[in-house]
Design a protein that fits this description.
alpha/beta; 13 helices
């Protein structure tokens, strides 16, 4: 059945140029016109009522697909990490994952860099690309063998695929649950120095520079790590950096009272590092903010802090947390949506993430001032393990379209 043409009027369009009144017309699932335009006869008309009209978010690096949670957060696409059971290290699994969310949510699988994510031998990356893999990922772990990582980067450069890496030297991090420092010492939690991040990052930057590969480090959480990224970008290395809201909203003080919802990977850092992340968001060093969506139930979280699984349910809070940066004047609104939509879409190589003519009509209507309270007991995710439980926030999605088709919220 042919889709009816949709025109969204009466809103404030969020584009790379700024925020301005205008309309968006969607034809056959694509954006046909943007700006000072009028609806045509026969169009379905949606009045945005002065709210923001923004691209649907593209969440780069999630560990589970919870469609209700993603839709609540205005997310229309996600890059799925390969850490499934079994891992996404085979073309058939990648193909299945790529079809799993359609039609109202698109999953972009990330190919496992190594067989079984064991870090030992490269997986069939080219075949997985043909099956729908949009990038290559090392998963939750760092590849310790530098020879394997070198071959991976050489292969990725040849295929022109981004390598999405976890930057944490496993020999130093071990089974640590916290960053070494006063808080970990007071709580008696096994910890590792934050240099686990910088050492891993320094090696991967060197290999990316050597091979010409494109490297995206999914989470950079320390001042020293961000300094390495700045220096590498200045030299022309093809590196991009990401972070999740936990590392710009929280420091290791959130671990007080052994709150396992604050057990994350990488672990929460010092207040100095948190401020460095905020500065890096402001100056452009960080390119992507993703949710790190990793729902964990009571069986994984109701344990002693050191034994609890790391991870947070982040899809529903991503937008609201990034909007705090806009209200604090760290970034402006166009930059917020570059971080959450445009840049991750570009890394995945998909025509989305911006209100551009010809792009997929993935569109969110957002009331940036709407107040609500994060409540772990009421989350749409399969588990409510959020470090932001009971926190008042602002910013909610009031309407959402995927490919021009309305999604019930």
């Amino acid at each position: 059945m042919k889709q009816r043409t949709l025109t969204i009027t009466g809103g404030k369009l969020v584009t790379g140029e700024g925020v301005a009144p205008g309309a968006v017309r969607c034809v056959d699932g694509l954006i046909d016109a943007v700006g000072d335009i009028a609806a045509q006869d026969g169009d379905e008309i949606f009045d945005a009522g002065g709210k923001l009209v923004a691209p649907g978010l593209v969440d780069l690096g999630v560990f589970a697909i919870d469609k209700p949670a993603f839709h609540f957060g205005g997310i229309t696409r996600a890059g799925l990490m390969p850490d499934a059971d079994p891992p996404l290290d085979h073309p058939a699994r990648v193909r299945f994952a790529a079809q799993s969310g359609k039609p109202d949510f698109w999953v972009h699988p990330l190919a496992a860099a190594t067989a079984g994510l064991a870090g030992e031998s490269l997986s069939e990356i080219a075949l997985m690309r043909e099956a729908g893999a949009k990038a290559i990922a090392t998963g939750r772990k760092w590849i310790a063998d530098s020879g394997v990582m070198l071959r991976l980067m050489q292969y990725a450069a040849m295929l022109d695929m981004v390598v999405i890496a976890h930057a944490e030297d496993s020999a130093i991090a071990g089974n640590a649950a916290a960053t070494a420092g006063e808080m970990a010492t007071r709580l008696g939690i096994p910890s590792a120095p934050k240099q686990a991040e910088t050492l891993a990052l320094a090696r991967d930057i060197a290999l990316a520079e050597m091979t010409g590969a494109r490297l995206h480090v999914r989470q950079i959480t320390t001042a020293q790590g961000l300094a390495l990224v700045r220096e590498a970008k200045a030299r022309g290395v093809g590196i991009t950096a990401g972070v999740t809201p936990a590392h710009f909203m929280l420091s290791d003080l959130a671990m007080a009272e052994f709150r396992t919802f604050a057990r994350l990977s990488p672990p929460l850092r010092s207040e100095e590092d948190r401020q460095a992340v905020i500065a890096a968001l402001g100056d452009g060093t960080i390119d992507v903010v993703s949710s790190g969506h990793d729902p964990r139930g009571p069986e994984d979280k109701n344990l002693p802090f050191a034994d609890a699984a790391s991870g947070m349910a982040g899809a529903e809070t991503l937008l609201a947390m990034v909007l705090t940066l806009v209200r604090d004047e760290v970034i402006d609104m166009p930059r917020a949506f570059a971080l959450m939509a445009q840049n991750p879409a570009q890394l995945l190589g998909v025509e989305a993430g911006a209100l551009d003519m010809g792009a997929e009509a993935d569109i969110a209507i957002i009331d940036a001032e709407a107040p609500w309270v994060v409540d772990s007991r009421k989350m749409a995710a399969s588990a409510g393990n959020t470090p932001f439980d009971r926190q008042p926030v602002q910013g909610r999605v009031t309407a959402l379209w995927k490919g021009g088709a309305a999604i019930a919220l």
